[in-house]
C-alpha cells in the first residue's frame, strides 16, 4: 500500500470522502470532468465503455483512472445505477477561480435504484418505488415512496400480504434491518435490489420523530396511521435513508396514504402472475395492462397499473367509476376535450417533484404553467357536467391562478434549458435587468459604429476592435497603417505585425459593457430562484391536480376502450351468482389474426345450483382461456371498467385465486408438483364465500392415480366448504366427470370440437356434459411426431380403451400386444429384445406421465428399426 505522504492533496481528499461512502462508486469532480479512481474506475470503464488509464505519481503511488466530461453526467449516471451500483456524486463546493490551493469538495447526492430522480433512470409509465420493510413476528410494516412523484404508501400485514405488495408494486429497491437478510431472501426471493441498515434505525420513537419533523405536525392522526406502529417504523426508515443519501429537499412528500387490505380485491402473487396482468412469461408477451392502457399521460398510465393490481372492493366506489365511464361514453365532446387537455398538461406529478429537488429547468417551469392552464380548462368544462363524481373531481382541481400568472409574466415563451444560457426572464420584469441588457446589446452595436467612425477619420481601412482579459477592449492597427494613428491614442501592446491602442472613449464604454453580462446572469438566476421558492407553496395543490388528471385519464381510457372494443357495463351486485353472456378473453381477442373473431361463451357460477364447473375438453381447445377470461372480466369490473361480454352480472368479489398450468421452480429447489401443491394450499386456506377459484390441470405434476385422487378430493373439499366458493376446474382427468352424479353443486361442461377425417377442429364453444377423450394423440400429430409413432399410439389407446375402466392400468400395459409389423424381430435370443425387456422392467407405469410414455415409446421404436 502506498504511503499517504506520496499521495497528492487531491488524492488525500478523494480518499477521505471515499471512506464515508465505501459501498458506492464515487464520481469525483475535477475541473470539467467527473473522475473515478481505483476499483471504481475499473467498474466504470467496464459498465460505461470508457477508457481506463493509470495515474502515476512516481513509483510510490499509482491508481487506475477513468472519467467523463461533467456535462455527460446524465448520459452515464443511469447506466451505472441500472447496472445495480450506488453512485455518490462529489462536486466542487467552491469556485476554483476564487480559491488558492485545493478546492473544497463534498457529496451532493447519492443515487441508488430506489431514489432516482433523473428522467433517463425513470420509466414514464411506471412508479419508481423505494420500499422499507420492518420485520416483526406477527405483523410486519412496509412503506413505499416514489421520490420522483412524492407519493408515499404504508401498510401492515403478515408475510403473505407483504409478499403480495412487493410483487404488486415492484419496488426498485428494498431496505430493511441488516440481521434479516436470510429471512428476506427465504420469504421474498432474490429478485429485488436490496440494501440493509442498522437495527437502531428501526425504532418507534426515532421513526415517529423523523415523520413529525418532516410533515411538521404534532401527531400522525391526520394521516390515519397512528395505530400502525410497524408501518410508522418502515416510513421512518425511508426518511432516514433519504437523509443518508443526501436528499434534504423533500417538500413534495406532503402526505402518507394507507393501503388497507380490506379496501381491495385480493389476488395473491400466483394469481397476478397466472393471469398475466402486468407481465408475461413470454418475451414480448401480451398482458392485460398492454391491452387496457390507452391512457394519454404518464400519470394516467402509472395509476392504471395500480388499479389493475389493486381493484376496488367497495361497491359504491366501483359504481361511481362505472357510472362516470358510462357518462363519458355518451358525452363524446366532453371526453375528447378532457383527453386533449390532459395530453397537453404534461407529467405534472414528476415536474412538481423537481421543484424542491432544485432540478427543474426554465422550460419545465413553463410546462407547469401550461399544465395549470389545462387544469383550469378541465375544471371549467367538468363543473358544468351532470355527473356528481365528475363534479367532485373537478372541484378538487386548483388552477393556482397567482403562480400561473407569475410564471407567464416572468418566463419568456421559448426559454433555454439552462438559466446560465441567458434570456430566461421577460422584459419589463426587472428594470435594472432591462437596462443592463440594453447596454450589452447596444454596446456591441456602438463598438461597430466606433470602428467605422475611427476608420473613416484616420483612413485605416483594416482597423479592428478586439477584446482580451488583460486590458479589455482595444483598437488593432497593422504595421502598414501605423503612421496614420492619431496622437490621442495610447499604445498598449506590440505584436509581430500590428499594434494595439486604447482611447478614452473606448475605456469609458468598456466599463459599462464588461460588468453588464455578469450582472445580467446573476439577476436572472436570482429571479428564477425566487420564482422556484414561491412555486414551493403550491406543491400540494398541484399534486392533487396531477392525481385528479390521472383518474380522469384512466376513466376516459375505459370509455374509449368500451367503444373501440365493444365492452359493456357490468352489473355489480351483492348476491352470489356470476352470470356472463357472450364473454370474451380481453387479451386473446385483441391479438387474433386479422379476420378471425373470438368465439364468445356464456358462464354461470351460482352456489345455489352450479357452484363448481368441471371443464373437460381436448388439449389446446381453450380451457385455460375460458378460466382466465372469467377472472379477468371479474377483475376489470372491480376496477370500474366495462367488460368484454354482452351482459355481465358479477357478484362483489373479495378474492380471486388461480392455479393455472404446471411450472417448475427448479431454481428454488421445488418440483412442479410441490409448486402446484403450495399454491393450491394457499387457496384452500384463504377461501371466503365471496371468492372466485380457478383451477387448471391440478395434479398433473404427479403420477396419474395420485393426480386424480388429489384433484377429486379438492373438488369434494370446495363443494363441501361452508363458504361454497364459485369454482371453475379445468382438467384432463375425465374420471372427474363422475363427480356430477355424486355432488349436487358440481356440473360438467366441455369445450366442443369436430372431427373431420383424421383431423380435429376446435370449436371453442362451451357445452354441458363431460368430454370423453383428451385428443393427446391428435395434438402429437399436430406437433409433427412421426406417423409410425402416432399409429402405434392409436393402437395402444384402442387396446387400453377396450379394457374395463376400473381395472388397474398396470395390468392393461402388461397385456398389451407388441406391434404386429415388428413381430419377426422379437427373437428370444436377440440382443435388442433383451435391452427392451430390461428397459421395460425398470419403468414404474403408475408414475409415468403421458409425455414420458411417448418418449419411451419412441426409444423402443428406435431400437427395433
Q: Could you explain how this protein is built, in words?
A:
The chain has 865 residues and is α/β, with parallel strands linked by helices. The chain has 6 domains: 4-111, 3-Layer(aba) Sandwich (MutS, DNA mismatch repair protein, domain I), CATH 3.40.1170; 123-263, MutS, connector domain (Nucleotidyltransferase, domain 5, 2-Layer Sandwich); 288-427 and 540-560, Orthogonal Bundle (MutS, DNA mismatch repair protein, Chain A, domain 3); 431-531, MutS, DNA mismatch repair protein, Chain A, domain 3, CATH 1.10.1420; 566-776, 3-Layer(aba) Sandwich (Rossmann fold), CATH 3.40.50; 785-863, no CATH class. It is 44% helix and 18% strand. It has a 7-stranded mixed beta sheet with strand order 13-23-24-25-21-26-27, sandwiched between helices. A 6-stranded mixed beta sheet has the order 3-4-2-1-5-6, sandwiched between helices. A 6-stranded mixed beta sheet has the order 11-10-7-8-9-12. β3 and β4 form a beta hairpin. α25 packs antiparallel against α26 (787-802). Residues 664-669 and 821-829 have low confidence and may be disordered.
